[in-house]
Write a structure and sequence with these properties.
This protein is of the alpha+beta class. The chain has one domain. It contains five helices and eight strands. Strands 1, 2, 3, 4, 5, 6, 7 and 8 form an eight-stranded antiparallel sheet that branches. A hairpin with a 3-residue loop joins strand 2 and strand 3. The longest helix is centred in the C-terminal third of the chain and has 16 residues. The radius of gyration is 17 Å and the shape is globular.
């Protein structure tokens, strides 16, 4: 787990909300505080779907909503002349990308043993911080996936020319 302070908040927000840079993620939850506090549960709502739709993995491949689908809603809640007082997004890397991250290291851990590679994005009114995390399906002694995910996020930000400082 690492904490990274974003050095250019405006540029980062443009990429998060205005571009496709983070479309390889799913939204677990969002909290946005502006004139109200808005909370979004990214879990798909079973009651909204018919039984056939719920079971259709092409229509609903994940338990969480794709960031690219919810991004415009979050953008609408944040845009304006005033900066939000705070926000937090909890994103999960789309599961299909986990194997490629694990292949970069010397580990016997498989994607089936990992529940999620998580990226927490927090803005407190003055600073924007990213915190990485790994959620496991079972206890593992091998923490190599944590280090691989941390490095993947550093590379992800560098490739997109997003400046950061390690905390």
């Amino acid at each position: 787990m690492i904490a990274l302070k974003i050095t250019n908040v405006k540029q980062f927000m443009g990429k998060l909300l205005g571009g496709e840079d983070f479309d390889s993620f799913l939204l677990e939850e969002a909290t946005i505080s502006t004139y109200n506090t808005f909370r979004i549960d990214g879990r798909q709502n079973r009651d909204f779907y018919s039984s056939e739709e719920w079971e259709d993995k092409k229509l609903r491949p994940y338990d969480f909503t794709a960031w690219k689908a919810i991004r415009p809603i979050c953008f609408d809640l944040i845009k304006g002349t005033r900066t939000p007082s705070s926000f937090q997004f909890v994103l999960h890397l789309i599961p299909e990308y986990m194997a490629s991250i694990l292949r970069k290291g010397d580990t016997s851990v498989t994607p089936l043993q990992i529940s999620a590679f998580v990226l927490n994005i927090r803005y407190d009114g003055s600073a924007l911080t990213l915190v990485t995390g790994t959620s496991y399906n079972t206890f593992l002694m091998d923490k190599t996936p944590d280090a691989l995910w941390d490095q993947a996020i550093r590379e992800f930000l560098a490739k997109r020319e997003i400046g950061f400082e390690e905390q």
